[in-house]
Amino acid sequence: MDSESESTRAILDDAWGHIPQTRETTAGLGSFTRLRIERIIAVVVGLGSLALGAQALLAAVTEPVQENPAWHVPLMVMTFVPLGAMVIACALGRGVRLFAGIFAVIYPVALLLWPAASVGGEADPAREPWIWFLVNVATVASVLAFPLVLQVVWTALIPLLFGVVRLMQADFAREYWYSVTLDVSFALILGGMLTTLGWVFRSVAANVDETRARAVESYAAAASADAAEQERVAVAALMHDSVLAALIAAERAHTPRERTLAVAMAREALTRLANTEQGAEEGSDEPRDASSIADDIERAALELGVRLSVARDIDAATPPMPGRVARALVLATAQAIANAAQHAGGSGLAVTVEGSVDPARTCIAVRDTGEGFDLDRVPHDRLGIRASIFARVAAVGGTSEIHSDRRGTTVRLEWGEVPA
Predict the structure, then answer these.
(1) Where are the domains of the chain?
(2) What was the pLDDT predicted at 394?
(3) What string of DSSP letters covers 152-210?
(4) What is the CATH topology of the domain spanning 286-416?
(5) Which of 162, 128, 135, 127 is nearest to 48 (CA)?
(6) Which residues contact 229 (CB under 8 A, 6 or more apart)?
(7) How far apart (Å, rounded) are the C-alpha atoms in residues 218 and 226?
(8) Which label site among 57, 61, 177, 187 has the fewest CB atoms less than 10 Å from its CB?
(9) CA 362 to CA 355: how far, in whole Å?
(10) Cα 399 to the chain's mean position, in Å?
């Protein structure tokens, strides 16, 4: 399993190697575009906030104070310190969400304090207070810090809150209503545009990342299949030499010892030949019980387009078998089912799995009620029976036999533990 994991990781690394690697991409390979977009939004917001913050600071320092002098400096410190921290965080690309969230929360608090701070101050309907310049800064800070629902709430709440406190400062005088309405409308429109742009850019980035992830996954699957096919071709070449060597040894065997050696070489070659047809995804050699084999047969038949229910007569104490044996029996059974579906039209097709303790064995029977066939007349180049059933089962130490006549065909596969 470790080699499989390393192979999969190597394929994915090769796939991601086709994407430019930067600090943003290596931080999260599945969010390449989203990280870029977030960084761009943070930089743009930082620059815009710096410009509006400088304008607000200049107005607070140079223009006549509209709030009570005792409140002026504390309100400035309360507002500009979090704003400066947010601008620095946007420039550095670190702690952006935290400091933007702090400013987005502190600014409405400063607005709520404004009516109390402006008691005794001089209000001017033709001149906006310095805190007005930061209305949309608080809106765009919510885009950096909050989910979409809260962004919409902040976009609508902050301008309306400013309008209310501005009218409270002027005791709701009639001459203030027109200018305040214009200010609130402008802030709502600009804030809505900024929130919408942020949502659009992030949605596009998320779609691009999702498409890229699917493409890389498809590439990895194709590369894995190609690597498996190349390995299978290489193994086939090696198996050709192994089988050829076994045949030569069998031809030249004259003594009992030479015959025994030839049989061992043939069994080893057949075992390797059967195992080369298995993909890495088909599991390990962990013991399997007869019931799970029946389940695998049903799934294999379904993949062949044949829906059947395997009859089971399995003793609960039936000994399990090695995984390689189970796979060989399932594949041989699938071949028998395919033959029945192709040559007998699936007439009367039935599969039975039996398991017993004494003797310790597992038997699989595949029956159909077709016209049958003469095994001796099957051409030698037709390997569906000889290689896929007989050789495969023999390679794992099992036995197989076929009985066929005009009443139908029965393929019987059996595997039992070798007595110690």
Answers:
(1) 2-215, 228-280, 286-416
(2) 86
(3) HHHHHHHHHHHHHHHHHHTTT-HHHHHHHHHHHHHHHHHHHHHHHHHHHHHHHHHHHHH
(4) Heat Shock Protein 90 (3.30.565)
(5) 135
(6) none
(7) 12
(8) 61
(9) 5
(10) 43
As a whole number of angstroms, the distance between CA 22 and CA 153 comes to 35
Averaged over 168-188, what is the pLDDT?
Answer: 83
The region of weakest confidence among 55-69, 91-105, 132-146, 216-230 is 216-230
pLDDT top residue among 120 and 201: 201
Residue 204 confidence class, pLDDT cut points 50, 70, 90: confident
What's the residue count for the chain? 420
pTM metric for this prediction: 0.48
- Residue 127, both tokens: 């001149």
Residues 6+ apart with CB under 8 A from 103: 82, 83, 85, 86, 137, 138, 141
What pLDDT does 209 receive?
80
pLDDT, position 363: 94
Question: What is the pLDDT confidence band of residue 103, given thresholds at 50, 70 and 90?
Answer: very high
Tokens 């990781």 map to which residue?
Answer: 9
CB 216 within 8 A of CB 12: yes
Q: Which residues pair with 353 in a beta bridge?
A: 312, 364
CA 166 to chain centre: 52
- The dihedrals phi and psi of 194, each to the nearest 5 degrees, come to -65, -45
